[in-house]
Amino acid sequence: ATYDAEGYTHFMRKEIHEQPGAVERALGGRLDERFHTAHLGGLNLDAREARGIRRVKILGCGSAYYAGQVGAQLIEELARIPADAEPASEFRYRNPVVEPDTLYIAVSQSGETYDTLVAVQELRRKGGRVLGVVNAVGSAIARECDGGVYLHAGPEIAVASTKAYTSQAVVFALLALHLGRIRDLSPSDGRRICEGLRRLPGQIEEILKQEDRIAALAADLATYRSMLFIGRVRGWPIARESAQKLKEVSYVHAEAYPSSELKHGPLALVNPELPTVAIVPDDDLLDKNQSTLGEIRARRGRVLTVGHRELGDDSLVVPKSEPELDPILLTIPLQLLAYHAAVALGNDVDKPRNLAKSVTVE
Ligand code: G6P
């Protein structure tokens, strides 16, 4: 069968709705219920090597980079290995120190992004060990890596990444679980994460049912010239990815900021003309986040919260997951928000101006 947006107005909307299935496939056969861990066949990394990893560095571009930021947090939380993400393009141009006990991970939907590919080649030249988290099987980046994990998300056509992004985050959770269980993650925490992962597809279905309400909110928010997206720790990569998504498809200016940094700058911009989207999960930072919301409201800024309870004038509520996995679900309503803002403004959603699905040149 040919792949088209049949039954859907756009590929982006179709791919948002394909996410429960994409997550099922990313998890497929990889969870081990007996030892509460994950098996990832293509890693080429035995337990002794995995224990020797001192640091993890994740490289990607665009949404893949933001998925990498979510991944770095998961690896640091579950496996207790210092981890961070960096744009592949920055990494390749700054003559990075390549360490033998660092695990490098390249993340890419297409597997063809030039900046990511060159970063991998530079790493290999310098003896770095690189894993790929890639969707396209047999792609250039997948072939260059020492091992890796495929997403199995299926083809993604819309320029703005949705299901591949979510599958990347899920694969990072599997990798973090795998590394964690080789190191210090307890069997009971391993079981907790396994069970949380299994619940994700059904929980994504629940979020997708809120589409009509999100579309109405999006049409309203699309009338503003600019928006602020804020989040703290686990919410911070979500704010970045969601602001990016809104910009890409709606062309509404959006700026992402860590909630904690608001008072060090962007609070000066807050007024009734600048709405804020705040990522506010029910976790140990809820009180801190609520006081940030108070500061915005005191300047009569409109607030849309995305979290696990009604918190403001407008709230999008998603099902609760395990705290480490919450970012995977909190992103989904904001994909729909960006999509429907673009539709409300009459934009070419699947092919935003000036952008390409895969940037294979310098
Ligand atoms: C382009 C696309 C983005 C994508 C990025 C990385 O900039 O417009 O949507 O996230 O490339 O692509 P990749 O295929 O490496 O994930």
Automatic annotation (TrEMBL):
Instruction: Enumerate the catalysed reactions.
Output: D-fructose 6-phosphate + L-glutamine = D-glucosamine 6-phosphate + L-glutamate
Which residues are annotated as active site? K357
The UniProt entry lists the main location of this chain as: cytoplasm
State its role: Catalyzes the first step in hexosamine metabolism, converting fructose-6P into glucosamine-6P using glutamine as a nitrogen source.
Q: Does the keyword Cytoplasm apply?
A: yes
Q: Which domain of life is it from?
A: Bacteria
The range of the complete sequence contained here reads 239 to 600 of 600
**Can you name this protein?**
Glutamine--fructose-6-phosphate aminotransferase [isomerizing]
Q: Which residue intervals define the domain SIS in the entry?
A: 45-185, 217-352
Q: Which organism is it from?
A: Actinomadura vinacea
UniProt KW Mitochondrion keyword:
no
Q: Where in the cell is it found?
A: Cytoplasm
Keywords, A to Z, come to: Aminotransferase, Cytoplasm, Glutamine amidotransferase, Repeat, Transferase
Q: Relate the assembly described in the record.
A: Homodimer.
Q: What is its EC number?
A: 2.6.1.16
